[in-house]
């Protein structure tokens, strides 16, 4: 995997968490593999302090487990933990979609539509999966803000790092999957436009919960 460059504008802890998400989801760090704070610190050329903080976040997410005498290991069942995270996120984004159908302004709806329109030619040309992933993240972010519910926005932001990493891996599976998930976004936005909160919520929950299944299939196909 091409390692992301460390930048000054984002807290080191958050960048390390993002990099390790990618390494775990891409299989560069495998289930049950032992990992050390010192090794990650050396690899990224950073001090051990932000690495320790990143490890604590990954432990809370269930992606690594640590023992005082044995050290730290990648979780034995990463996909199962991703499913648990996806169920939590589906609840948050489902509520966001429901409230967006009630409270989204015309400008917010137009912003979401513009993001989907921007992705269309990229999917057609089957190029720039990273940009598609970025636009998809923006779509979810705008939708959460369109809920006009501060609790939903804050909870969604807490899951944004793992969410982005999952989406990045999914967008490397194949462009048919990218197209399928884009169509799901379009259906969600139609429900929001038509002010159908229950439908928007149901479509969003299905959309988010599918993500770990796609990663699971990817891993199975590569074995």
What can you see in these coordinates?
- The chain has a three-stranded antiparallel sheet.
- The two termini are 18 Å apart.
- The mean pLDDT is 87.
- It has helices at 12-25, 37-44, 48-61, 78-103, 106-125, 129-146, 150-158, 160-170, 175-193, 197-209, 211-222, and strands spanning 34-35, 64-67, 71-74.
- It has 223 residues and is mainly alpha-helical.
**SS class:** mainly alpha
Uncertain segments of ≥5 residues (pLDDT<50)?
none
Q: What count of domains describes the coordinates?
A: 2
- N→C terminal distance: 18 Å
Q: Strand tally, please?
A: 3
CATH third-tier fold name of the largest domain: Four Helix Bundle (Hemerythrin (Met), subunit A)
Main attributes of the structure:
about 5% strand, about 75% helix, 11 helices, Arc Repressor Mutant, subunit A, 2 domains, about 220 residues, mainly alpha, elongated, 3-stranded antiparallel sheet, Four Helix Bundle (Hemerythrin (Met), subunit A)
Write a short abstract of this structure:
Helices cover 74% and strands 4% of the residues.
């Amino acid at each position: 995997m091409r390692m992301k460059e460390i930048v000054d504008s984002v807290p080191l802890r958050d960048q390390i968490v993002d990099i390790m998400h990618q390494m775990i989801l891409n299989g560069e760090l495998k289930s049950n593999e032992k990992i050390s704070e010192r090794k990650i610190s050396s690899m990224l050329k950073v001090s051990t302090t932000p690495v320790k903080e990143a490890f604590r976040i990954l432990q809370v997410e269930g992606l690594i487990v640590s023992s005082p005498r044995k050290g730290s290991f990648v979780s034995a069942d990463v996909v199962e933990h991703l499913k648990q995270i996806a169920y939590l996120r589906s609840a948050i984004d489902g509520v966001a979609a429901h409230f967006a159908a009630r409270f989204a302004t015309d400008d917010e709806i137009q912003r979401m539509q513009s993001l989907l329109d921007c992705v269309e030619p990229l999917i057609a040309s089957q190029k720039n999966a990273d940009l598609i992933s970025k636009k998809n993240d923006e779509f979810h972010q705008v939708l959460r803000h369109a809920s006009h519910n501060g609790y939903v926005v804050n909870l969604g932001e807490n899951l944004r790092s793992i969410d982005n990493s999952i989406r990045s891996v999914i967008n490397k599976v194949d462009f048919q999957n990218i197209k399928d998930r884009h169509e799901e976004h379009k259906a969600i936005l139609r429900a929001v436009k038509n002010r159908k909160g229950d439908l928007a919520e149901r479509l969003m929950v299905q959309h988010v919960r599918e993500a770990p299944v796609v990663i699971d299939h990817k891993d199975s196909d590569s074995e």
